[in-house]
Structure formats: structure tokens, C-alpha cells
Design a protein that fits this description.
The chain is of the alpha/beta class and 376 residues long. It folds into 3 domains: 13-77, Arc Repressor Mutant, subunit A (Orthogonal Bundle); 83-195 and 355-375, ATPase, nucleotide binding domain (Nucleotidyltransferase, domain 5, 2-Layer Sandwich); 203-349, 2-Layer Sandwich (Nucleotidyltransferase, domain 5). The chain is built from 13 helices and 14 strands. It has helices spanning 13-23, 28-35, 39-51, 120-134, 170-178, 187-197, 258-267, 275-282, 286-310, 320-323, 326-339, 354-370, 372-375; strands spanning 55-59, 73-77, 83-89, 94-100, 105-111, 141-148, 157-160, 165-169, 183-186, 214-219, 223-229, 232-233, 314-318, 345-349. A 5-stranded mixed β-sheet has the order 5-4-3-6-9, with helices on both faces. Strand 7 (157-160) and strand 8 form a beta hairpin. Helix 2 (28-35) crosses helix 3 (39-51), helix 4 (120-134) crosses helix 5 (170-178) and helix 6 (187-197) packs across helix 12. Belongs to the ROK (NagC/XylR) family.
Length: 376
């Protein structure tokens, strides 16, 4: 039975060599120093990756024209002949991508698909069909990966009021639709996993963690978080959203999602088509401004509570709730600073749409990066 993917640093020697070449401008000598393998092992693994078309030699002459002597030969990622398909399924839209195994996005498209308007099977079949259309003329994928805004539990089920899906076994359903094994993950876990995939390795695994302990918050259609600890993204067991993400204001406002605040504004008689539009209205509409304020305080309390319990070194804020509404970000940061541990480093992630595309490609490439020669 398929289960959601697990994001961590690679374990096998050849996967670690591939990871290091992706994340550094290494040559064979540097790889030996960085990873602690023998020169013979490095030579063997690099040769295997080059034979599979995944790694190539790159002359540094163009970047070092002013230097004399023999140009340094570094190793770079190739893999343009292999593709992977990815999707990020949100409440109101889905991002689909085709990328190569070097992680470069070749094609992309946004699908205006609302989860509540289609049965889960019909929704995911549409995603499959659109990925087929998007990849016309390209090689068949070595793997397929689907990320969901909603929590996905450890058995691969989605149970989400925002989606309108009840106990849907997305792992099994996707395998049936695509007629192959499909990688599945919660989107915010994939976003955190991207931090790991971009971080170089160290030779001694007993050293201090390669990444600081990090709490990663994503707030858009659904509020969600991920925790990176000692180079591993924690995978939740139940997949249930914490109750603190579903508070009620005195006016019985909807949960903290973007769609929730749009629904509440609509109930108050304001017509709006997007969150960005609603943020603009909030600047001169007192009832909407108060709605945003209450939501920002509740979101700040939720983040602060998590930070206080986990005590991470870094807190990352991502998603439209933070990036499009500076007031919400200010209130949330203030709550964290005053009620949680003040020593944590706070960061804002301004990737916009690219963050969803990156999550989709991260899930699509997760199994390949753990065993590149198996899939090539």
C-alpha cells in the first residue's frame, strides 16, 4: 500500500553524491572531502551518474577568464532527458508542472478547479488528464507527485471540510487513476522538504544538524504547518488540523483560511473575487478591517502557541495571509515576539505562485532523489 512520502536527507552513497552535486559547485576532490567517501567510491558513483545522463562535467573557464592555467572542471546536474509530473491541489485551484529530474520546470499551468464542485475522483482524473495534455511531445515521466493543501494522514487519506472531502484515500485513488504508484504529500511538508533538498551535506552525520530546527507556516486557503528537526520533516500521524487553527471569533467567523474570510465578508454583503481584493477593501471598510484584525490575532496566537511548545531556531511565514496582508504579518510577528520565545529567527517567504509549483515538483522528485539510478 502506498503511503505519503517522507522528506529527509538521502541515505545511500550515490544519492548523497547526486544531492551534493545539485547543491554545490563541487568537483571530485571536493566531493571526497565533503562526504567523507574514498576517492574510488566518488569516482565510481560519479561515473554511474554520468552514464545515466544525470551528471555532466562543466568547465569553469567561462567564469574564470581572468585566471591563467588549466580551468577547473566542476560537476553539474544534467537529466534534461527525464521528466516528472507534479501538481499542488488547492481548495479553489490546482497548479500543475512538468519538470526535468534536475528540478527545472519545463511547463506549468494553473487549473481553476474547486474541490467542492467535483467529486474527488472526477477532480483528480481532471488533473491527470491536464498533466497528459501539458506534457504532449515530452518523454513519459519517471514519477508523478501530488501535493494537497489539506492534511494527508499517514495512511494517505484526506478528510477536509475545506475540500468537502470525507475520508478519501488519495494514495489508492491516484494509483488507480494514473495506473502507477504516485507520490503524495501535504503541500506544506513538501515546502519544508524543499529546504532540505537545497541544503548541502556534511561528511560527519554526528555533527550539529545541517539545518536549524524550523517551524514552517503556510496560510492561504488552509492554515498548515511543518516542522523540520535534525534534517527531517516530521510527518504527522493523524493528519488532523490542530483545533487552534479553527477558532471562532465573537461574531462566529469562519476558520482562518483565505476562503473562510472571503465567505465571512460575502455574508456581510461585500462582493469580492479574491483575497488581494479583500485586503484592499479592508483598508477603508471598518467591518472588514475588524474581521482581518480578529483573524490576525487568532492566527498569531496559533503560531505563538506552536513556537512556544516546539521552541524552534527559525520560524518561516509563507502564503497569501502573510505576504498579501502586511497587517496580519505584523500582528502575527508581534504575538510570537511577546508570547513565545523571542530568540527565534523569523523569516517571510515571498515566493508567491512559485511556492506551489515548487511543492508540486518537490513531491514529484522525492523518490527519484532518494534513488536516482533506480528511476533513470
Amino acid at each position: 500500500m502506498n503511503k505519503p512520502v517522507y522528506f529527509s536527507f538521502p541515505d545511500t552513497p550515490v544519492a548523497r553524491v547526486f544531492h551534493q552535486i545539485r547543491t554545490t559547485a563541487s568537483d571530485r576532490t571536493l566531493l571526497q572531502r565533503q562526504l567523507g567517501y574514498s576517492q574510488a567510491s566518488i569516482t565510481r558513483h560519479v561515473a554511474s551518474l554520468m552514464e545515466a545522463g544525470l551528471v555532466e562535467e562543466v568547465s569553469a573557464a567561462n567564469q574564470e577568464e581572468s585566471r591563467t592555467g588549466r580551468p577547473r572542471i566542476t560537476l553539474g546536474i544534467d537529466g534534461g532527458h527525464l521528466t516528472a509530473w507534479g501538481a499542488h491541489v488547492g481548495v479553489s485551484s490546482t497548479e500543475i508542472v512538468v519538470c526535468d529530474v534536475g528540478g527545472r520546470i519545463i511547463r506549468q499551468r494553473r487549473l481553476p478547479l474547486a474541490t467542492k464542485k467535483l467529486a474527488p475522483e472526477d477532480h483528480l482524473r481532471t488533473v491527470s488528464h491536464e498533466l497528459e495534455r501539458l506534457s504532449v511531445g515530452l518523454p513519459q515521466p519517471v514519477d508523478v507527485g501530488i501535493a494537497f493543501s489539506s492534511h494527508v494522514n499517514h495512511h494517505g487519506f484526506v478528510d477536509s471540510s475545506e475540500y468537502g472531502w470525507h475520508d478519501i484515500n488519495v494514495c489508492s485513488l491516484l494509483s488507480e487513476i494514473f495506473n502507477r504508484s504516485v507520490s503524495v504529500s501535504t503541500g506544506v511538508l513538501a515546502m519544508a522538504g524543499a529546504e532540505i533538498s537545497d541544503t548541502p551535506l556534511a561528511a560527519d552525520r554526528r555533527e550539529a544538524p545541517l539545518l536549524p530546527s524550523t517551524l514552517y507556516f503556510y496560510a492561504r486557503e488552509i492554515v498548515n504547518h511543518a516542522w523540520i528537526f535534525n534534517g527531517v520533516v516530521h510527518r504527522p500521524h493523524s493528519g488532523k488540523a490542530p483545533s487552534i487553527y479553527r477558532p471562532e471569533t465573537p461574531s462566529h467567523a469562519s476558520p482562518l483560511s483565505v476562503s473562510g474570510i472571503i465567505d465571512e465578508a460575502t455574508a456581510q454583503g461585500l462582493r469580492t473575487s479574491s483575497f488581494a481584493d479583500l485586503v484592499r477593501h479592508s483598508q477603508h471598510c471598518t467591518p472588514i478591517k475588524e474581521l482581518f484584525r480578529a483573524r490576525a490575532e487568532a492566527l498569531g496566537d496559533a503560531v505563538a502557541a506552536a513556537v512556544e511548545f516546539v521552541d524552534p531556531e527559525v520560524v518561516v511565514f509563507a502564503g497569501e495571509a502573510f505576504t498579501l496582508d502586511p497587517d496580519t504579518l505584523r500582528v502575527t510577528v508581534s504575538r510570537v515576539r511577546h508570547t513565545a520565545h523571542p530568540g527565534a529567527q523569523l523569516r517571510i517567504h515571498n515566493a508567491g505562485r512559485n511556492i506551489l509549483q515548487r511543492a508540486a515538483s518537490q513531491v514529484a522528485l522525492s523518490r527519484f532523489r532518494n534513488d536516482p539510478l533506480l528511476f533513470s
